[in-house]
Write a structure and sequence with these properties.
Layout (H helix, E strand, L loop, with lengths): L5 H11 L1 E4 L2 H4 L15 H13 L7 E5 L23 H13 L4 E5 L10 H13 L4 E6 L6 H7 L5 E5 L5 H7 L8 H14 L3 E8 L9 H7 L3 E6 L23 H10 L6 E4 L1 H29 L1
Parallel strand pairs: 2-3, 3-4, 4-5, 5-6, 6-7, 7-8
Antiparallel strand pairs: 1-2
Helix pairs in contact: 1-11, 4-5
Bound molecules: iron/sulfur cluster (SF4).
Iron/sulfur cluster binds next to loops.
């Protein structure tokens, strides 16, 4: 039984900054060979889900993005989750929130940032990943990272609890990476990407790549490099303007010089149409999802508050 009051329950959920998505269709696309066997939802949990659906109550938070930090070692000019605060929920509180989400029906968790491996040199995200797989037994546990701080030692310790690692890579030209803000001094982002690809293979973690297409990489041909890395999925985003994050008075970034038109984005997609793992994410689609997530989050929080009064 939870000892938390409805108010503290609500506060934890706010701190978690979850983006909820009930669209199983989008997230259940087949990823060949990567997914560890999923535990079907049975018994009391399944009953609760049915009950919620019948009540017309809050939707089930099937898939959750947990952006637990805004801090990052990179300074990408288009970033829309910037370091406006250094707050990170303490580990045990984060685990408690995750357990609540599991209780509410979560099946998939993705840890993101900022840079998730910055906190406690990757130990924080490692412990959360282990908790989600070992204790909560979630069918899908993933991380999105810029990859720069991940060491093989991390895979040795936590690799068995991770299903998917998605690494951001916007260019295979180091000069372009520096222009974008993904410079690492003497370190080479592309070399690190290849190391991470190998470690994912060695430790049986599915490997994905995320790319943001912007003014500086729009003309690049990435066909050969992506095919050589052979990710299970290559997610290609159109550079996005978010007021207050990368645009406007309070913003820590100025995205304007990175933006591209819809036609430019289509041109990039067309150039890479033979890469079978490519999944495009246009601005329109991401904006719709942001709006949808906000709506679902509000509905879900309200539902949990109501439910907590009844059940606890
Ligand atoms: S790596 Fe990601 S979180 Fe870090 S600055 Fe770049 S876009 Fe933002």
């Amino acid at each position: 039984m939870w000892t938390t009051s409805p108010f503290s329950y609500y506060k934890i959920l706010l701190s978690l900054f979850v983006a909820l998505c009930c669209s199983l269709a989008r997230l259940s696309l087949p990823l060949r060979g990567w997914r560890r066997p999923a535990a079907p939802v049975r018994g009391a949990a399944a009953g609760r889900q049915r009950e919620r659906r019948r009540d017309g109550a809050a939707p089930t938070p099937t898939s959750v993005n947990y952006h637990f930090t805004r801090q990052c070692n990179y300074k990408c000019g288009f970033c829309f989750h910037t370091a406006k605060t250094s707050f990170v929920l303490p580990l045990e509180e984060a685990k408690r929130g995750l357990a609540m989400l599991k209780e509410a029906g979560m099946e998939k968790i993705n840890f993101s940032g900022g840079e998730p491996f910055l906190q406690d040199r990757g130990e924080f995200v490692g412990k959360l990943v282990q908790f989600c797989k070992q204790v909560l037994k979630l069918p899908s546990v993933s991380i999105v990272s810029n990859g720069s701080m991940i060491r093989e030692q991390w895979f040795k310790k936590y690799g068995e609890y991770l299903d998917i690692l998605a690494i951001s890579c916007d260019s295979f030209d180091e000069e372009v990476n520096v222009l974008i803000g993904r410079g690492q001094g003497k370190k080479n982002h592309v070399e690190k990407l290849h190391k991470l690809r190998k470690w994912c293979r060695d430790y049986a973690v599915a490997f994905k790549i995320n790319s943001v297409i912007n003014r500086f990489n729009i003309e690049e041909d990435m066909n050969e490099q992506i095919k050589a890395l052979n990710p299970v999925r290559w997610k290609v985003f159109q550079c996005l303007l978010i007021e207050g994050e990368n645009c406007g008075e309070d913003a820590l970034r100025e995205v304007e010089k990175f933006l591209i038109s819809d036609d430019d984005f289509e041109r990039f997609l067309d150039r890479h149409k033979n890469v079978s793992c490519l999944v495009p994410e246009s601005n329109q689609k991401v904006k719709l999802e942001v709006a949808f997530h906000s709506y679902i989050l509000a509905k879900w929080k309200y539902g949990l508050r109501t439910r907590s009064f009844h059940a606890y």
